[in-house]
Amino acid sequence: MSAEAEVPEDPESIRGDPESILVLKRVARTVSSHLSEGEANVKAEQACFLPCTDDGVPVIGEIPGVNGCYVATGHNSWGILNGPATGAAVAELVLDGQASIVDLSRFSPARFNSSSIVR
């Protein structure tokens, strides 16, 4: 059900794709007869954006050239699972200057800096 799209300025303008919603409703009916049309009341039909990077790897670390500005994003659908470890690593990074529980070099925001790209 995913698609690539720019995040709109106004979150209220985000709408779910009608075709995707119909597919989800059909799948829900196969899971439980109580989720059939008329039996279950739909309270909302929503869509959301997942934070994804072009290379599929989260961005975790200090922003190059912006002292003291840290990010931890781009986990895609794995944010809830990886959030605690990411939080612990970023806490170490902020407090101690480096993370000891995981090597964050692979996740560095500097990889998107054009001057760090090897050609």
From TrEMBL:
Gene3D superfamilies, alphabetized: FAD/NAD(P)-binding domain
UniProt xrefs under InterPro entries: FAD-dep_OxRdtase, FAD/NAD-bd_sf
Cellular component GO terms, alphabetical: cytoplasm
Residue span, FAD dependent oxidoreductase domain: 9-93
Residues in the signal sequence: none
Record's protein name: FAD dependent oxidoreductase domain-containing protein
Organism: Tripterygium wilfordii (Thunder God vine)
Lineage per the UniProt record: Eukaryota, Viridiplantae, Streptophyta, Embryophyta, Tracheophyta
